[in-house]
Structure formats: structure tokens, C-alpha cells
Write a structure and sequence with these properties.
By secondary structure, the protein is of the alpha/beta class. It has a single domain, classed as Metal-dependent hydrolases (TIM Barrel). The chain has 6 helices and 9 strands. The chain has a 9-stranded mixed beta sheet. The longest helix has 12 residues. The chain is globular.
Length: 201
Amino acid sequence: MKVELHLHTSRYSACSQNTPAAMMERLIQTGYDAVFITEHNAVWSDEEIAQLQSGFPEIRIFPGVELSTGVDGSQHILVLGTTDSEYLKLRSAEQILQKSRQDGCLSVLAHPFRWAGGAEILKSKILPDAIEYYSGNHKHPDAEMALEVSKRLNLPIVNTGDVHSLADINQFWIETHYPIESPGDIRKVILERAYDNCVFG
């Protein structure tokens, strides 16, 4: 399955330029099979996900969130597979990562070397399940630093679009080795490394 793990829409992310419907249409046009919607510090409800899904049966739509934490908010953690608003109350990376594991969700450190705070999480006792490799906001040389750290810490690395506009779609993504039927399946796929990182062109 062709999967987008990191996508923002104009519904809840001020930095996004396009509506959920426009994003879904473009994902379908470019051959995606599934997407995780990861708004900045906001979660979609189960009802909202179900409503959007009903309008776009050609693609599997899953929930998630991108949480900003740390002293200056420069630590960004994706939690994939949740609609739980309790995540929005957590103040530390450790709390987020602990809850994510308890809930069976996948945690991904977003663009770990874009800002100084991201790399600090990689020195903690509790590590994310995976780290971003290439994305719209994380390219050379940051991606190469992520690859080096992933080898040292034995962490999976994943390509994501970090999508904020239609132009970001179909640049970086993963293709899973087996289908994702429910939101929690993505954690198993990534931890088993049953996927390939892909880049357009």
C-alpha cells in the first residue's frame, strides 16, 4: 500500500493551504491507498474521520496528531492511529511516548534535525518508535543525519510528505508490504520494517 504518514489540512492546521477534501482528491489521483491526518496539536474525532471516509471510499483515512513539546515547542512527535484528545494535555515527550506505547499507536519523531530540540529526544531513556527520514521539511543533510542515528539506535526511519499543500503530495512516502486495515496496524508494519521508503522520480 502507498501510504502518507504526515499530512495537515486547513481544517485544524493554520499552516496548511488546502481543505481535507482537496487533499484526499489529490492523494487518490496520485495513487495513494491510505493516509494519516496529523494536524498540529489537534485531533479529529471518530465522527469527523468517518464522515470524510464516507466521501472518499477509494482511500483509507486514519487519524493521528503532530504534537509540539519541549521548552520552545521545537520537539515534534507524530502519534499515528489516535483520536484521543488526552494527548493534547501532555506536556513532555516522555509522557507522549509512554501513552503512545500504552495505546498501541505508532510514535514518529518528526524532522528530528530541523531544530535543535528534536535531537534531544533521541538522547532520552524513552525513544520514539521511528524517526522521519526524507520529508518535505527534512532533506539533505538532515536526512543523512537521521539515517546515521537510526543505525546507531536501531530505529526504523520513514519517508513522509509532511504535507501542507497539494504540491507536497507524491514527493516522499512509504509502501507497506501488506495491507493496513486498522489504524493500529501501522505500528506493526513499521516495527517489523515491512515497508519501503519511496521518493518521486
